[in-house]
Design brief:
The chain is built from 11 helices and 17 strands. It has a 7-stranded parallel β-sheet with strand order 4-3-2-5-6-7-15, with helices on both faces. It has a two-stranded antiparallel sheet with strand order 1-12.
Length: 355
C-alpha cells in the first residue's frame, strides 16, 4: 500500500450534503491541515431537504469548502470540476440510496449509481492526460447489500456476490466491477467500501431507527419486518468516518504484473460493527433512549404501537461484517455500542425537532 499525506490536498467529495459525506468533510477539516474540499450534491428531495441544508450550513463555516449544486450524472459538470480543481483524492458517496425505493423508482439508481459513477471513473482516467500526476486515490461507497441472500455469515469480501436481491445492490456491485476494469486499464488506485447499516445524529430519515422515531412521536404504528427475526450490523457514523479517513490515506500500490501490464491497484473492505443486533432488541434500546432524552413520555405504550410483519421484497434476514481485513491493513475496528450511538441520535433528535 502507498501512504498518502492528506495535508494541503484537494479532495472531491460527492454527495457532500449526505449523511456520510457531510460528516466526513467536517472530520477532515477538523483533523487535516490545509485540506481543501470540493463538495458536489444534487440535493434531491428523496428525504427532507432541511436535513441536507443543516449539514451544509455546518460546513459553510470552513473557508476551504467549495460547494457545487449538481449531479454526478452531468458529465460536462464533472469534467469541468476536474479541469478546474484537479482533485487528488476523490471520495464518491453520491448515490441513490435505499433498497425499497429501488423497486419503485429504478431509473434514479441507473442515473446516479451507474451513469454518474461512470462519469467519475472517466474523469479519474483523464486526470492523467498530458503527463499530469492526476488522482492519487479513488475511494467509493459500496454497500453490504451486495451480499444479497448469502447464507454464510459473517460476510467476507472473499465471498462470491453475484446474487443481488435488489436493483440498489446490483448498482453497487456494478460500481465494484466497473472500478476493477478502470483500475486495471488505467492504473487508477481505487478502494471500495461496503458499508453496513450506518446510523447516528442527522442521519437518513428512511433508515429504520429514524423512521421509527418519527412514527412513534406521531402516535403511528411501526412495522418490524420478518416478525423481528432480522439482524443488522449497525455501524455508528463516527466509526464509518474514521474508517473512510484512514482508507483515504493509504492507496493500493501500483505494480506491474508478469505480463508487463498493471496489476489493478484495487481493494474492497467491509466497514461494519461485526456485532449484529436483533431488530427487537434494537427497538427496545431505541425506545429506552427516546424516553431518556425526553423525545417520548416515560409512560409511552410501545406494545400498542408495534406490529410484527413478514419480510419485505429486497430485504435480507441478516447483515454481519467480517472486518478482519480492515483491522489488518488500517489497524481499525468500529466499536461504538448500539446504546451509545442511539443515545447520541435521541439527544440530537430532541434538539433538532423539539427545541
Amino acid at each position: 500500500m502507498e501512504n498518502i499525506n492528506l495535508e494541503n490536498k484537494t479532495v472531491l467529495i460527492t454527495g457532500v450534503a449526505g449523511f456520510i459525506g457531510s460528516n466526513l468533510a467536517e472530520q477532515l477539516f477538523e483533523t487535516v491541515k490545509g485540506v481543501k474540499i470540493i463538495g458536489i450534491d444534487s440535493i434531491t428531495d428523496y428525504y427532507d431537504v432541511k436535513l441536507k441544508d443543516y449539514r451544509l450550513e455546518r460546513l459553510s463555516k470552513y473557508p476551504n469548502f467549495t460547494f457545487i449544486k449538481g449531479s454526478i450524472s452531468d458529465k460536462a459538470l464533472i469534467d469541468s470540476l476536474f479541469a478546474e480543481y484537479k482533485p487528488k483524492i476523490v471520495v464518491n458517496l453520491a448515490a441513490q440510496a435505499g433498497v425499497r425505493y429501488s423497486i419503485e423508482n429504478p431509473g434514479a439508481y441507473m442515473e446516479s449509481n451507474v451513469i454518474g459513477f461512470y462519469n467519475l471513473l472517466e474523469a479519474c482516467r483523464h486526470s492523467y492526460d498530458n503527463g499530469e500526476s492526476g488522482v492519487e486515490h479513488l475511494v467509493y461507497a459500496s454497500s453490504s447489500s451486495v451480499y444479497g441472500s448469502n447464507k454464510k455469515v459473517p460476510y467476507s469480501t472473499d465471498d462470491k456476490v453475484d446474487n443481488p436481491v435488489s436493483l440498489y445492490a446490483a448498482s453497487k456491485k456494478s460500481n465494484e466491477l466497473m472500478t476493477h476494469a478502470y483500475s486495471k486499464l488505467y492504473n487508477i488506485p481505487a478502494t471500495g467500501l461496503r458499508f453496513f447499516t450506518v446510523y447516528g445524529p442527522a442521519g437518513r430519515p428512511d433508515m429504520a431507527y429514524f423512521g421509527f422515531t418519527n412514527k412513534l412521536r406521531n402516535d403511528e404504528m411501526i412495522q418490524i419486518f420478518n416478525y423481528g427475526n432480522c439482524k443488522r450490523d449497525f455501524t455508528y457514523i463516527d466509526d464509518i468516518v474514521e474508517g473512510v479517513t484512514r482508507v483515504m490515506a493509504k492507496a493500493p500500490a501500483r505494480k506491474t504484473g508478469e505480463d508487463g501490464l498493471p496489476v489493478p491497484p484495487y481493494a474492497i473492505y467491509n466497514i461494519g460493527n461485526s456485532n449484529p443486533e436483533n431488530l427487537l432488541e434494537f427497538v427496545d434500546i431505541l425506545q429506552q433512549e427516546l424516553i431518556r432524552a425526553g423525545v417520548l413520555p416515560s409512560d409511552y405504550d410501545f406494545d400498542a404501537h408495534k406490529e410484527l410483519v413478514p419480510m419485505q421484497p429486497g430485504d435480507v434476514p441478516v447483515t454481519y461484517a467480517d472486518t478482519s481485513a480492515l483491522e489488518r491493513d488500517f489497524g481499525f475496528k468500529p466499536s461504538t455500542s448500539l446504546r451509545e450511538g442511539l443515545r447520541e441520535f435521541a439527544e440530537w433528535y430532541k434538539e433538532f425537532y423539539m427545541v
